[in-house]
Structure formats: structure tokens, C-alpha cells
Amino acid sequence: MFLFDDRGDPMAYEQYWKKMDDKCKVVITGSQLMSYLSDPRKVCWFLEAELEEAIKKLHRVVGNAVVDGRHIVVGTGSTQLYQAALYALTTPGGPQPISVVCAAPYYSQYEQETDYLRSGLYKWAGDAYAFDKEEPYIEVVTSPNNPDGSIRKAVVNSTSNEGKHIYDLAYYWPQYTAITAAADYDIMSFTFSKSTGHAGSRIGWSIVKDEEIARKMTNFIEYSSIGVSKDSQHRAATIMGVIYNSYQDIKSDSTENFFEFGHRLMAERWSRLREVVAMNGFFSLPKFPREFCLFNGDYTESYPAFAWLKINGDIEDCEKFLKENKILSRGGKRFGSDPRFARVSMLSREDVFENFLNRLLTIKGIRNGH
Amino acid sequence: MFLFDDRGDPMAYEQYWKKMDDKCKVVITGSQLMSYLSDPRKVCWFLEAELEEAIKKLHRVVGNAVVDGRHIVVGTGSTQLYQAALYALTTPGGPQPISVVCAAPYYSQYEQETDYLRSGLYKWAGDAYAFDKEEPYIEVVTSPNNPDGSIRKAVVNSTSNEGKHIYDLAYYWPQYTAITAAADYDIMSFTFSKSTGHAGSRIGWSIVKDEEIARKMTNFIEYSSIGVSKDSQHRAATIMGVIYNSYQDIKSDSTENFFEFGHRLMAERWSRLREVVAMNGFFSLPKFPREFCLFNGDYTESYPAFAWLKINGDIEDCEKFLKENKILSRGGKRFGSDPRFARVSMLSREDVFENFLNRLLTIKGIRNGH
User: Fold this and answer.
1) A199 close to B (CB below 8 A)
2) Fold designation for B36-247
């Protein structure tokens, strides 16, 4: 049986939320949350007030993004918001589709999400480092980066000054990396899937400076799906509320807080992975600097949600090699990078993660046996 | 204050679900429904098994669609499924975008949902009656029709035999019209919003004959939003379950069943509207034949979710005229039709509906006063 690690299903956090089952319980009766509308006076008219408030409170507690005076747009995951941002930045459309770039290695799904409808508004143009046209463009900046966990800034060196930016900050949370400043970009996207692990709810949000951009993103989500599940908005607000309340309540020390749990879990998993990788010698892993985390009040390494494995020696296709050893991964080519790399999820359930480590160890066994 | 009737928010059913609040209650704990996945072996891998089962049981009870041996694809409302169907029917794309048509008057949002991304795969081509090109096309058939409640069949008269069809059956439920047969088309879409009134949950589903089309629709929803809220899927399954169980339980006569309630409510509202319209003499309304409903076991008229008002006499813009009388509607032009028509929701909350009737009566007062 293959490990289903390909999508990065964030099941690692399930064990934490099991302990919080009752505290995070939501109850929805037959007649609640029936309307399309949340607040017709708001730019994002389908955003529930309680979710907006919870998002803002959570960012204020964590300190990872500026929210005051900003518009919040809710989406069916950050996937829908990425497309909403492309739409907002390209309408009314010019004579040709605008190039969308991202520094390689980049998230494997950006290309598909940009091009699947063959839009006349925008088109995928690949690696931002290779982009040198003097024309309007959109650069997606993913930080920490998926797949390799690196901290990113915009890289296109254009004199045309016609670049616009979308910041995908899905992994800018204290369990993955040091919170070094409150991010303050024009469009910043986050997701419930990666912050708390509730991928099944499909809730993402963008923090947007400009009202007109927020309005266009809202229009996109209206045309795409007439809003976003109210049931999941309510659930996300409840769970975020439990998290930020845990940081208000000084006396509460019976249960570990979520981000402490997440940070400890990720640090342990990375330590175990680095140990196995060092033992078998087939692979190398990125190294991350220690940075001071304003949230934890201490220095920390990055512990990304994915391991960006590089195969050493003569083997040229890391994904294929892993597959031969019954480990499912996404190969480097899909990230605009070298096939000697492959991405493996660090967020799987404990038994799956352990299985992954054991299979990595088995590879060592095979090599020794030959 | 204007009546916010423009979108057709189905709040009329709230009074029914209030009585069922407890019976329809869903409880979701902190660790439930966290994964992206529902069943990786299924074509639609993010469809919860309980929702698939509930959808099939509900259609079997109502008798409005064939579900046995069909694939179910869940979407974030039927809006997302409409776009998924366009994508599924046009990939791999030919040298030019395929024309999408619908008989006028057609649902006002189809044009925008088809064209907002300027897709190279498909483009809106307007009224199906006017389409006479000998080339591939997609015809959307909405039955009962939005805005005018008529029962529809495909109308394009093409000898090229290259037409494909999407059936939007959002209103093919017993509260709106007679169920005369179990529909059995290639792609049929339904929505939780119009069947039970739970618009806030954004749950729609398509019943699809061909596995490859179902797979492509699933791919679209993956690229668009990586699936559909599990919380809302669970809630929709629960509420559908309460409905079909009510039809199994012969002894249960304490509470009216949902479709009986809906049918009675819509019949009453249409009767009151026809009375007011007859009294003031400004407007006319469509007439519907009486048909035998296999579900109710009796003859019934249609009681559509929207009233398609036509203004009589010299006034040329019905929407403008209504707006002057503080009634918000969507004018005929937006439905590819005559501006002497306008669409008004029949599904608003009771106080809003009563307000609408009173304002219609006031118009009569003004005319008499001149």
C-alpha cells in the first residue's frame, strides 16, 4: 500500500482537536444560517461578522499580519481566493492575458489554477526569476514557501513598475516558522486548512488593503459560488475563538495551547526525519536559519509542513525512486524545479508519518544489502 | 427602504425549519470532518458518503430524477457545478470557444458565470432560439425556468448533432411544480438552496450519467476550491434525511411534511399575488397548466419561486417602474428578454412578501388618485 501523502492533508493536528472536541463543538439547528447574505452593507456581503472578528482577533494574538483598517474577504479555501485575486488584479482586461509568475520551486497547483480555464485575463508564465519582460505582471509570493519552506520576498526585477503582488501566507504561523513581523502587504491570503488543520471546512481568507480590490474579489466569489458555506464560517469562528481565548486566559495551563502543541509536534517530526535522513544517506534536506519568534518569545528554526527532499548521487528522479520504495510524493518538476527533488507531507497522521520514516529506513537496508 | 428581493433569498422556508430546529440539529466536534478527502476510490473523492446516500434517497422519495447507476458530483452551490459542467463538456478545448446558449428569458447570471474569466473554452452566445450555427454548442435547459416558471425542453434546431446539454433542475421540486416523470438527462443539477431553502450552506449536486464527465467536473471543483465544505455536506445530509424519513413514517401526522408545507405556502402566495395583480390592473402574470403530480397524487398548477411580472400599457421599463414604487426587481433585459418584464422573488420572508403585496396595492392607489 502506498502512503497517501501527495496532497498534504493536515491530519497531524487531529490528535490535538480530539482533546478539544467538546470545547470546539458547534451546534447548528434546522433554521439557522439559511440566507445567502451576511451583511449587505459590507464589501464582502457573505462574510459572517463573527468570522471577521475571529480572524482579526487571531491575527492580533499571533502578530503575523496587520488587520486594522483592512478588508477581509472569505473564500472556499485559499484556492478560490488565489483565483479571486488574479481576477481582481486583471479586470477590466487589457488586450492580452497578464503574466503570472512565482519564484521556483513554486506551489505545484498555481499553474493549473491559473490556466485550466484558458482565461483571456491572465496566464501562467512560470519561474519569476526568469521573467524579464517589460510589461504588466503578477507575482505570487509564497512565504514560507511551499514546497521548500524558505522565507520569500518578491524577486522580479522590473523597471516597468507594473508588477502586482499576491502574498500566499498559508504557512506563516508559529508552528512552522518564526513570526518576525506583522505582514502588511496589499493582498495576503491565509487558510483554515494549514493554520489549524481543518481542511474539510474549505475556509480561507484574504486581508486586502484596497477596497476596490476587495470588492472585485468578492464579485469573483459571487460569480464562482455565490459566497462561502456559512456552516463552515461559523465553525471556523468558533475554533479560532477557542484558540485566541486560550491565550487570554493566564490561569489555563491544563491543556497545551494549539500553537505550542503544533510547534512541538513539528519540531519533533523534523528532528526524527533529519535523523533518518542522516542515517540512510540517500537524501538531503533544506537547512533553515534560527530566527527570533515574536510570538513564542524565543529563537526557533523553521519546521515546514512539507519536506523538500533532494536525492543525492546519480539517481535523477526522486519521485520515481520514492515510489519504488512505496512512498508517494510530488516530484520537483511539478514545482518548476529539478526532478532530483520531491515533496513529502509532514502533516500526515502519526501512523502514516511513522510508516514514512520506516520506509525511508528500509531504503537504507536495501542499499546495504546490495 | 427598498425590498431586498433581487437575489431570491429563499427565506420563506425558515418558518418551517424553526419548527424542526431540534430534529435537524447538527453537532460537529473539534476533530470531525478535518480531511480534504471523503473517499479516494470514488470519482468525486470529496463527496461525503452520507450526502450521496441522502441525495439518492430524497430523489427516490420525490421521484423527480433517476439516480440509480448515476454519479453524484457535489458543488459549492449549483453555480459552481454549472461552471464545472461547461469545463467538463469543453476539455480538451478546440480551436475556438464553444457557444453556450439558453432559451430566453434565461437565468440572468448564466452570461456572467460563462464569460467573467473570458475563457478560451466556452463563451456565452445568448438566446438558444436565435442560435443557428452548424458548429458544436452547449444548451442550458432550465426547467422549471428561472425567471418565468415555464417547463422547458431543448430548443436548438441543429442538424450538426453536435449539441450537448446541461439541465438545471433547481426548481423541479413538488412545492413549485407537478412532478410528471423522473428526469433522466446526461447532466442534471439541483441545489439545497431551492429544494429546502438552505442557501447559506452552498450545497449543490449534479447527477451525471457518464463517468468521464463526472471525473472532469470533479477536477474542475478540485482546481476551483479543492472540494466542498464537509460541514455543510453533513448538514445537508441530515436535513434531507429528516425529510425522507418523514415520508417513510406513516404514523407521523403531528407535523406537516416539508413538501406539503412548501406547496401550500407557494399556492397561497401565488393566490394572494394574483388577487393583487388583478385588483390593480397594471401587470400580468404567466398562466400555468394543471398537471398531474406523481408525488402529490393530484393535479396542481405551477407555483414558481419567482413572479415574472409584465407591465401593461405604455410603460416600457418594468424594473424602473417598480423601483419608483420601492420594489426591487431584476428587469427583463438581464434575462435576455423585454424590459416590460421584471422578476420578483416569491420566497422572501413573510413580512417582506406582505410588504411587496402592499406596495403593489399602493401603485393602484396612485393611479386612482390621478
Assistant:
1) yes
2) Aspartate Aminotransferase; domain 2 (3.40.640)
B258-369 in CATH: which number?
3.90.1150.10
pLDDT at A256: 85
Q: What is the pLDDT of residue A253?
A: 57
From the candidates B4, B45, B116, B345, which should be mutated to test the interface with A, based on the most A CB atoms within 10 A? B116
Q: Which CATH number fits domain A35-247: 3.40.50.2000, 3.90.1300.10, 2.60.40.10, 3.40.640.10?
A: 3.40.640.10
Instruction: Kindly determine whether residue B93 and residue A193, on different chains, have CB atoms separated by under 8 Å.
Output: no
> Following DSSP, what letter does each residue of A279-345 receive, concatenated?
HH-SEE------EEETTTTEEE----SEEEEEE-TT---HHHHHHHTT---EEGGGGTS-TTEEEEE
ipTM: 0.96
- Bridge partners for A238 per DSSP: none
pLDDT for res A7: 75
Q: Which pLDDT does position B353 carry in this prediction? A: 95
Task: Report the residue of chain B nearest A219, measured CA to CA.
Answer: B116
Instruction: State the Cα–Cα distance between residues A228 and A225, nearest whole angstrom.
Output: 7
Q: Give the strand pairing for A203-208 and A71-76.
A: antiparallel
Q: How many CA atoms lie within 13 A of A139 on its CB side?
A: 24
> CA triplet A95, A116, A332: central angle to 5 degrees?
115
Q: Are B245 and B53 in contact (CB under 8 A)?
A: no
Taking only residues 270 to 329 of chain A, the set having a beta carbon closer than 8 angstroms to any beta carbon of chain B reads: none
Q: Is the pLDDT of residue B18 over 80?
A: yes
pLDDT in tens, B229-265: 999 999 999 999 999 999 986 655 567 899 999 999 9
Tell me the range of A2-16, A92-106, A187-201, B251-265 where mean pLDDT is highest. A187-201
Q: State pLDDT tens for residues A221-279.
A: 999 999 999 999 999 999 999 999 999 866 555 678 999 999 999 999 999 999 999 99
DSSP B211: H
Beta carbons within 8 Å of A195's beta carbon, 6+ residues apart: A58, A170, A173
Chain B residues with CB under 8 Å of A203 CB are: 229
In our burial notation (b when 16+ CB lie closer than 10 A, e otherwise), range B39-57 reads eeebbbebbbebbbebbbb
Contact B293/B253 with Cβ under 8 angstroms?
Answer: no
Q: Do A18 and B30 touch (CB under 8 A)?
A: yes
The residue-averaged pLDDT of A123-131 equals 97
How many residues are listed for chain B in this entry?
Answer: 370
Domain boundaries, chain B: 36-247, 258-369
In whole angstroms, what is the distance from residue B249 CA to residue B264 CA? 21
Q: How far is C-alpha A97 from the geometric centre of its chain's CA atoms?
A: 26
Q: Which residue has the cell 471525473?
A: B215
The closest of B49, B68, B79 to B241, measured between CA atoms, is B49
Half-sphere exposure of A346 (CA within 13 A, CB side): 29
Residue A369 — pLDDT band, cuts 50, 70, 90? very low
B36-247 and B258-369 share one fold: no
Q: Is A80 on the interface with B (CB under 8 A)?
A: yes
